[in-house]
């Protein structure tokens, strides 16, 4: 006698019906959020290029000579700064003097001036106040105008004359 096996099929059908009757629940992700800060501090900073040599060329006593050179300064926005030029070995910013190591003492110097403008009216001083200019964040070009006055003595020896100036950026 063959008895149909319904137990396995009934159990499977019961499980399917039970699942069908359960309410469907979707999988739901839970999130949590928070915030954090990102910070930076911009420090006052400046950089300066080195000017080329200011060369007056050949000097004939009785004839004034002029020349110029330039340099750039870049300071962070709002940073105040000053630019000063030393008197060099002559010690004076209003009476700068080039000298020659090979010329006889007393006949070994030529005077000249350094100016902020092409009309030679504003002398480059040795300012270190740190407040003459305000940084823009971009390069700013400064021109140094030099002038050797004509009325210099004819007793200057025919040779080369030099002078070293220290350019100081204070901020």
What spatial order of strands do you see in the largest sheet? 1-2-7-5-4
Main beta-sheet strand count, sense and barrel state? 5 strands, antiparallel
Written as H for each helix and E for each strand, in order along the chain, the element string is HEEEEEEEE
Individual helix count: 1
What's the total count of β strands?
8
Report how far apart the termini are: 110 Å
Mean pLDDT comes to: 85
Low-confidence sequence ranges: none
- Described by its quaternary structure, the protein is single chain
Note the overall shape: rod-shaped
> Which range best describes the helical content: under 10%, 10-25%, 25-40%, 40-55%, 55-70% or over 70%?
under 10%
Q: Please compute the radius of gyration using only Cα atoms.
A: 41 Å
The fraction of residues assigned to DSSP E strands is 25-35%
Structural class call reads: mainly beta
């Amino acid at each position: 006698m063959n008895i149909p096996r319904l137990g396995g099929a009934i159990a499977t059908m019961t499980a399917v019906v039970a699942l069908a009757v359960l309410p469907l629940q979707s999988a739901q992700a839970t999130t949590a959020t928070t915030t954090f800060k990102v910070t930076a501090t911009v420090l006052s900073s400046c950089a300066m290029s080195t000017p080329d040599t200011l060369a007056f060329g050949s000097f004939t006593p009785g004839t004034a000579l002029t020349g110029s050179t330039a340099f750039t300064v870049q300071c962070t926005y709002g940073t105040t700064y000053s630019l000063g030029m030393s008197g060099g070995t002559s010690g004076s910013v209003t009476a700068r003097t080039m000298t020659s190591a090979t010329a006889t003492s007393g006949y070994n110097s030529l005077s000249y001036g350094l100016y902020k403008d092409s009309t030679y009216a504003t002398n480059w001083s040795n300012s270190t106040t740190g407040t003459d200019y305000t940084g823009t964040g971009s390069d700013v070009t400064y021109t140094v105008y030099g002038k050797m006055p004509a009325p210099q003595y004819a007793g200057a020896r025919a040779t080369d004359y030099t002078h070293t100036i220290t350019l100081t950026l204070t901020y």
